[in-house]
Design a protein that fits this description.
The protein is mainly α. A 3-stranded antiparallel β-sheet has the order 1-3-2. Strand 2 and strand 3 form a beta hairpin. The longest helix has 28 residues. The radius of gyration is 20 Å and the shape is globular.
C-alpha cells in the first residue's frame, strides 16, 4: 500500500481519483478561495502535498528504470541530461549544470561517464573557442528517443480512460507548477 492508492491501481477510500476534487477542494468551475494569504493547513495544500509526494516518489523510481533502459550503466541522475540535450540540442556544460542544478564538478563527472558510454560527444563552441558544446551522439539520440516513446505509450495506456481535455489540462497545470517553482 502506498500513499493515495495501492499498487493494483485501485484508489484508497476517501482519496479522490483523477479529475475528482478531494474534500475541501473546489471542483471544476467552483470558485475557491485564493491561494494568496491562505494557510498551508487548508485542505487544498494538504491534498497537493500528499499527491506530489506520491508523484515524485514514483518519478524517482521511473527515472532509474528509464536510465537503465537507455543503458544498463547509466546513472539515473544523468537521464535528465540526455532528455535536455534531446529537446534543446547542443549546450555548454555550464548551461546544463545550471538547468539541472548541480555544480561544475558534478556535471563534468556525469558528462565524462556519458561520453564513455557513447551517448554524448563534445565539440568546440564556434562562438567561443575556449568553450565546448555537448550533444547527443546518434546512438544517444536513438536510445533516448526509444525510451521516451515507450514512456509516452505507458502514459497513454494508464490515462486511456481520461478525456483528452483532462490530459491537456494536467499538462498545462504541471507546466504552470514547474514555472512557479523556478521563481
Amino acid at each position: 500500500m502506498h500513499e493515495g492508492g495501492n499498487d493494483d491501481g485501485h484508489r484508497d477510500a476517501g482519496v479522490p481519483g483523477p479529475g475528482v476534487p478531494g474534500p475541501g477542494v473546489p471542483g471544476p468551475g467552483v470558485p475557491g478561495p485564493g491561494v494568496a494569504g491562505t494557510g498551508v493547513d487548508q485542505p487544498a495544500f494538504l491534498a497537493l502535498e500528499r499527491e506530489l509526494t506520491v508523484l515524485l516518489r514514483r518519478a524517482r523510481a521511473s527515472q532509474g528504470e528509464m536510465a537503465r533502459e537507455v543503458h544498463p550503466d547509466l546513472e539515473s541522475s544523468a537521464y535528465g541530461l540526455l532528455v535536455r540535450l534531446d529537446e534543446c540540442g547542443k549546450q555548454r556544460a555550464t548551461e546544463l549544470a545550471a538547468y539541472i542544478g548541480v555544480g561544475k564538478a558534478t556535471m563534468s563527472r556525469q558528462l565524462r561517464a556519458l561520453e564513455e558510454l557513447g551517448l554524448v560527444a563534445r565539440e568546440p563552441d564556434p562562438a567561443d573557442g575556449r568553450a565546448w558544446l555537448v550533444a547527443l551522439t546518434q546512438e544517444g539520440h536513438d536510445r533516448v528517443r526509444r525510451v521516451r516513446e515507450a514512456r509516452r505509450a505507458r502514459y497513454a495506456g494508464r490515462l486511456a480512460d481520461w478525456d483528452s481535455r483532462e490530459v491537456t489540462e494536467l499538462a498545462r497545470l504541471l507546466h504552470q507548477l514547474n514555472r512557479g517553482m523556478e521563481k
